Amino acid sequence: MYSSSSCTLSESDQEHLLEKLDVFKVNGRDKRGRKVVLIIGKHFPARMVSFEVVKRYLEEKIYPKLGEKPFSLVYVNSGVQKSENFPGITVLRSIYDAIPTNVKDNLEAVYFLHPGLQARLFLATFGRLFFNGGLYSKLKYVSRLEFLWDHVRRTEVEIPEFVYDHDEELEYRPMVDYGLESDYARVCTAPSVDPIPMYSMRCIA
Fold first, then answer.
1. CA distance 138 to 74
2. How many Cα atoms within 13 Å fall on the side-chain side of residue 40?
3. CA–CA distance from 138 to each of 31, 71, 98, 108, 190 (Å)?
4. Which residues contact 168 (CB under 8 A, 6 or more apart)?
């Protein structure tokens, strides 16, 4: 992620890109009736937007929709690539530090879908160092969509189709979860996320 002065896109274009890709959205509720903030990691254009724009986007588009009530967060890690979607440790810490105190206090659960080995190692190593113990203790790893539905209302939360595809692939290639089998071929053949993403409301029996 760049500083605002080094981004090639104007700030308005960066905001439009975040909106178009549906990176962040308040979408549905969990089983406790709390609003859900959905973050699609694969859609985050880390090399094209600045920290300042992300911070302002959250302040203007996301936080006001939460009100002063408890909420939960679902982070979808399916298909995330460090070179494209990861903003860097320093930026992640800056984004977290910029979250208003009342919003932090109202965040009661973080569901991390399809974490993978690298993400688990990163959080195990840096989680408590870069994020306070309160947030880290709210983190729950969710390896499959069927387990996510134990916590959130599946008829209300819109999950992109590629996440279902990734979930089905993991059923046949479970070693990808643990870094013991390469996911390279699937990543290289995956479609671009430039178009506005299509979502699926299908249910899992």
1. 12
2. 26
3. 16, 12, 19, 6, 32
4. none
Q: Is 171 exposed, middle or buried (0-12, 13-18, 19+ CB in 10 A)?
A: exposed
Among the listed residues 189, 198, 120, the one whose alpha carbon sits nearest the alpha carbon of residue 161: 198
Q: Over its length of 205 residues, how does the chain's per-residue pLDDT go in tens digits?
A: 655 544 679 999 999 999 999 999 999 999 999 999 999 999 999 999 999 999 999 999 999 999 999 999 999 999 988 889 988 777 888 888 899 999 999 999 999 999 988 788 888 877 777 666 577 889 999 999 999 999 999 999 999 999 999 999 888 876 555 544 444 434 433 444 444 444 443 443 3
- Give the pTM: 0.80
CB 42 within 8 A of CB 193: yes
Residue 107's SS3 state is strand
Strand partners, 29: 35
